[in-house]
Amino acid sequence: MKDKKGAGATGSAAEAAEAAETAETAQAGGGAKGPEELRRQIEETREQLGDTVEELSAKTDVRARARARGAELKGKASEAGHTVQGKAAHAGHVVQDKAVEAGHVVQGKAVEAGHVVQGKVTQTGHVVQSKATRAGHVVQDRVPPPVRTATTTIVQAGLRHPRPVLIAGAGALVAAEVVRRRRHSGHR
Fold this sequence. Notes:
Number of strands: 0
Strand content: under 5%
Low-confidence stretches: 1-12
Shape: rod-shaped
Oligomer: single chain
Mean pLDDT: 78
Structural class: mainly alpha
Radius of gyration: 60 Å
């Protein structure tokens, strides 16, 4: 029986140690009502400690946090870049539309100014033509017959070849004026 007693004593010591541990844990954990509940509380505490260790580890892992923050900032920068690109494209279209509109306005003003100038040139052309016709009649009435014949020949040649005849006609008019002045002043 001694053996049983010895085994019982060893078992009692183990049970006593377990009971003491259970008592300490029960005081710390709110009082477990048996070994199974105590094991369950210990397992929960281990899981909580594991989670806490993981959280602390993640908070102290500077590289991982920097990578995560970098990825976050990269995403925001990319989004901002797309926003700016969209706004720039829109602004470009607005400027292009305004430039086209301004071009049309300038073109309309140029056409209008062209019509005004064309009207004035036409009017001036009629005035010059009328004065030239009157001057031609005056010259015809006052110029002696030989000069008149030369002038008629020059005019007909001028219709065929305007530039050389214009020069020759100017010379003939100068000559006609010289002849007229000599006649009126008495020099023959």
